[in-house]
Amino acid sequence: MNTIITLTKICRPALLLSFILFISTQSFAQKPADWQLEKMPAALETDFALSALPPQLRPGATVYLLDPAKGYYIARKGSNGFITFVMRTAWEWAEFRNDIITAISYDAEGTRTIFPVYEDAAAMRASGKYTALQVRNIVIDRIKKGIYKAPARPGISYMLAPVMRTYPAKPDQHTVMTMHMPHYMFYAPYLTNADIGNIPDGQADFPVLVNPEAMFLGKNKAPYGYIIVPAGEKERAKIIAENKDLLKRLIAYKPYFKS
Question: Does residue 81 come out as left (phi exceeding 0), alpha (psi in the -120 to 50 range) or beta?
Fold first, then answer.
């Protein structure tokens, strides 16, 4: 049975932020073909990716789709500086899975500095030449060397899709979950929860700060921190209602999207 988490049922930020990347340093064994991803239907992938953005930004956004044999490619060139895509590889976990599907968007600054990490991780996985642990180690090494840089100005990543499927917050609970949690992410490089007054370590209340590289680089050295602000209850209900058809299509594609 799939575990479904709704925003209204979560009592602590750490439990709803499945993508909070408290990463285990353990390398998980992979079967030879685990790196191979199934191609998502292009129309469904496009609509799911666009659902990450507010409606007014969708017409002018650039849409990236994933070719499992090569990586991301531009399916539709936009004009407003925003991009959107469906993340299929959570490189931080050092594990290749086939059921990670999360729509993410970035503004121009996030496109320049953060998206290349996802782009390169997808390309390395698609090549079949790297293990999941090697991909994670390469990304961390490139961050350390300054190849991947922190955002140079404030910015935003919209994650307003009606559903997402990824890892839970607890590092000892290695299970993937389906969740309804549209939210906003504001770039906060090198910040910690203490810096924004959310202590101890993000457990107190929203907003909360998450940082995927903190486990490897130290909390004060990780460039891709985000301050997370969830959509309000009424906004969340509206997003889910407006995306009923998309949710039906996603469930028809993969039953694990069912709530």
Answer: left
Least Cα distance to 44 among 185, 243, 256 occurs for 243
Residues 83 and 178: their CA atoms lie apart, in Å, by: 23
Overall average pLDDT of the 93-97 stretch: 90
Partners of 6 in beta bridges: 180
SS3 for 103-135 is EEEECHHHHHHCHHHHHHHHHHHHHCCCCHHHH
* Contact yes or no for 91/136 (Cβ under 8 A): yes
Examine the pLDDT at 102 and tell me if it is beyond 80: yes
Query: What whole-number distance in Å separates Cα of residue 123 and Cα of residue 67?
Result: 9
pLDDT digits (tens, 9 = 90+) for 151-191: 999 999 999 999 999 876 544 456 888 999 999 999 999 99
DSSP 199: T
Two structure tokens written together for 148: 């991947």
**pLDDT tier, 218 (very low <50, low <70, confident <90, very high otherwise):** confident
Average predicted confidence (pLDDT) for the chain: 86
Domain ranges of the chain: 4-253
Q: Which residue, chain included where needed, has tokens 């469906």?
A: 86
Contacts of 183 (CB under 8 A, 6+ apart): 159, 160, 228, 229, 230, 231
Query: Rounded to an integer, what is the distance from CA 77 to the centroid of its chain?
Result: 21
